[in-house]
Write a structure and sequence with these properties.
By secondary structure, this protein is mainly alpha-helical. Helix content is 54%, strand content 4%. This is DUF2567 domain-containing protein.
């Protein structure tokens, strides 16, 4: 008697209790639906509008740099003060907090995630940061330092304009934090696809 070619612990090729192999997936994965695109656009819009709140907070919480004029030039009132970098630090910390909250909120509203949501978080974070930067610099102290110095007079301290010395690095804090938090939550707590090779349990 010859031994069977298929070991007894493996299922037969046509065993009805064993699920068929999964169909091959394309290189692009599942198609993106119109609903997902709309959700991504909404995330972008809401994040961009939230940038106004970031701008207001930055304007009110950022430390002020004081300048003084002697009638011939404008100088820092305290050259050893670290308030010059405090404006950037305040903006970055606030932007990181806004990004983390945005990533958490999007995950709680739609746990399955998706490419449009991640792109919406990134684009919305950049737009929100740009809006916050624009609002802070527009409604903050004037950028015309010379005219301001002439207006207040010599030896009278006045506030320097609100600026971002880190530039693009500060503007990317929000989108990076949003994507990292969202992707981390999706990887840790997001829904899992069923294993097509898992044998069904007998009743």
């Amino acid at each position: 008697m010859t031994a069977p070619l298929t070991p007894p612990h493996q299922p037969q090729p046509h065993d009805p209790a064993w699920p068929p192999p999964p169909p091959p997936s394309g290189p692009e994965g599942d198609p993106i639906t119109a609903a997902e695109v709309i959700q991504g656009v909404l995330v972008t819009v809401v994040s961009a509008v939230a940038g106004a709140l970031l701008g207001v907070l930055w304007l009110n919480l950022a430390p002020r740099v004081l300048l003084v004029s002697d009638g011939k030039g404008v100088y820092l009132r305290n050259s050893e003060a670290e308030t010059a970098i405090g404006s950037d630090g305040t903006f970055v910390l606030l932007a990181l907090a806004f990004g983390a909250v945005a990533g958490l909120a999007v995950f709680l509203l739609r746990r399955r995630g998706g490419v449009p949501l991640v792109l919406g978080l990134a684009a919305g974070g950049v737009l929100g940061s740009l809006l916050a930067w624009g609002l802070g610099t527009h409604f903050g102290p004037t950028s015309d330092v010379v005219a301001h110095a002439k207006q207040v007079g010599p030896d009278v301290p006045f506030e320097a304009p609100l600026e971002l010395h880190l530039g693009a690095a500060a503007l990317l804090a929000w989108p990076l934090a949003a994507m990292i938090v969202h992707l981390a939550l999706t990887a840790a707590f997001g829904p899992r696809d069923p294993d097509p090779w898992e044998q069904p349990k007998a009743l």
